[in-house]
Structure formats: structure tokens, C-alpha cells
Design brief:
CATH topology of the largest domain: Rossmann fold
Strand content: 25-35%
Largest sheet: 9 strands, mixed
Structural class: alpha/beta
Radius of gyration: 22 Å
Oligomer: single chain
Distance between the termini: 57 Å
CATH architecture of the largest domain: 3-Layer(aba) Sandwich
Shape: globular
Helix content: 25-40%
């Protein structure tokens, strides 16, 4: 069984984010600390668990981004993946989910993967679109926010449970090949081992330019990046205690925070 896991490099959670007004995007040069996207760690771990339960399983890792992004590929190999690939982008600017998905699809189209895993979303953009768009490129079945999965013994289908609103779950059975995006909490990602890290650091990654094979034409354009607007609107209640209590109940009812019996 051949599995491809898509990983992304994101800024550390506590890193301040600044906007470069001249480029209209985040000032990446001001960010010194990066890590693997946390939800992608769960996807790597789930691939490793599949490998442990199904013989002759191979795990490839892929990322899209500038030169420094090969660190997250090597970390995934350090966790136990077999090999990695890096689709290198010339700039560190905004890349739409469609561009990323198209680049990965162009790389993977002739690799005979049975399953492609991604994190449910990235910690920085939180769009959650690369997985479904990747499935659309291949016309494969797909499921998002998966909290449980089980590959059938015949390796032809995968049973998944996906997290939905209200604490409920969808139960689906997908024909393989398929794309599955992994939700946090499905497992406990392992730490890279020393032996695997040594192998990862010495292993040569397959590198591809994002512009050479795909020649992508963007389907969307970034209009503007701004900081969230700060607002501290408040209401001061006046009158007697009874009047204040009635007004407070009215306000809570208007905001659907309190329902009359």
C-alpha cells in the first residue's frame, strides 16, 4: 500500500505576526521559529499506524514552500516515514489552496498512491481546502475532519468516521484510492527517533520546482491582508436593580444567549 502525507511548515504558535504592506502579505523574514503544522503530525502518525498494521506499506511525505520547508519533511521521516519530496516555490508569498493542491496533484499523478492524507486544516490560514481540492484533481472520494479510520483487509476500501457539529459523527466507507483529512485527537503523534532523524538528515529529498511542471495559472488573487479590528463596545445599564435585571434579560434574549421558558 502506498500512502502520501501532505505536511506544511507554519510559524510557531507564539510568534508575533507582522504584515509587510509593500508586499501585501505576512512578513516571513520577521519570523524566526517554524514548525510542522500540528494537524499534519496527526496525519503522519495515522499513516505510520496503518503501516504497522498492513505489511508492505510505504509512506511518502510532501510539502510545498521555500527552501526552509524541507525541515518538516525530514521531521516526518524522523517519525518513521520512508521518503520525502519538496515542491519548492520561488517566493515566500501567498499561495492559494488551489495552487498547492494542483502542484501536489501534478507530482502524485503517476505515483500510484492508494491513500493521500492531510491535516484537517493548517494552523495559519485555517482554510481546510487543500485536501478536498486535491481529491477533485484526481476525481477520488474524500472525507474531511476524520477522527477514526480503518483500512479494510482487502485494501480496497477505507472506513472513516468524521467529526461534525454537535458532537456527532458521520460514518463513511470510501473506495480506494481516496483522500482523507485528519482531525486532531485521532491519535498521539510520536516523537522522532534518533536513528530515524539521522537517516532523515542524510537522505536526499526529491525536489521539484512549483513553476516548472505545473505552470500554474492562479484562479484567485489575494486582495488584502489586515489585522483584526479591535472593538470594545459595551452597554452600561442604568436605573434600579429591577430595571437593570429586566434590561439584561432582554439583551441576552436578543443575542439568543437566554431562551424564555
Amino acid at each position: 500500500m502506498n500512502i502520501l502525507v501532505c505536511v506544511k511548515q507554519v510559524p510557531e504558535s507564539e510568534t508575533p505576526i507582522y504584515i509587510d504592506d509593500t508586499r501585501g502579505w505576512i512578513d516571513r523574514e520577521a519570523i524566526t521559529d517554524f514548525k510542522m503544522n500540528r494537524l499534519d503530525e496527526y496525519a503522519v502518525e495515522e499513516a505510520l499506524l496503518i503501516k504497522e498494521s498492513i505489511a508492505n506499506t510505504r509512506i511518502d511525505i510532501i510539502t510545498v514552500g521555500p527552501d526552509r520547508c524541507d525541515e518538516v519533511v525530514r521531521r516526518a521521516i524522523g517519525m518513521g516515514a520512508d521518503s520525502g519530496a519538496h515542491i519548492q516555490s520561488a517566493s515566500d508569498g501567498y499561495q492559494s489552496p488551489w495552487e498547492v493542491a494542483a502542484a501536489i496533484a501534478n507530482f502524485a499523478h503517476d505515483k500510484n498512491y492508494n491513500l493521500i492524507l492531510t491535516g484537517a486544516m493548517s494552523e495559519d490560514s485555517m482554510q481546510g481546502q487543500v485536501g478536498p481540492m486535491l481529491a477533485a484533481h484526481f476525481d477520488w472520494p474524500w472525507a474531511t475532519s476524520v477522527i477514526f479510520e480503518k483500512v479494510a483487509s482487502d485494501r480496497k476500501v477505507i472506513y472513516v468516521e468524521r467529526e461534525i457539529e454537535g458532537g456527532h459523527r458521520d460514518s463513511l466507507e470510501l473506495n480506494l484510492p481516496a483522500v482523507v483529512t485528519i482531525q486532531s485527537g485521532i491519535n498521539s503523534p510520536r516523537w522522532p527517533s534518533l536513528s530515524n532523524l539521522l537517516r532523515a538528515n542524510s537522505q536526499e529529498l526529491e525536489t521539484v520546482s512549483i513553476n516548472e511542471p505545473a505552470k500554474l495559472q492562479p484562479k484567485e488573487f489575494l486582495a488584502q491582508v489586515t489585522y483584526p479590528q479591535k472593538s470594545r463596545d459595551g452597554v452600561v445599564l442604568a436605573g434600579s436593580l429591577g430595571d437593570k435585571a429586566k434590561r439584561l434579560l432582554t439583551i441576552l434574549g436578543e443575542k439568543s444567549l437566554l431562551h424564555p421558558k
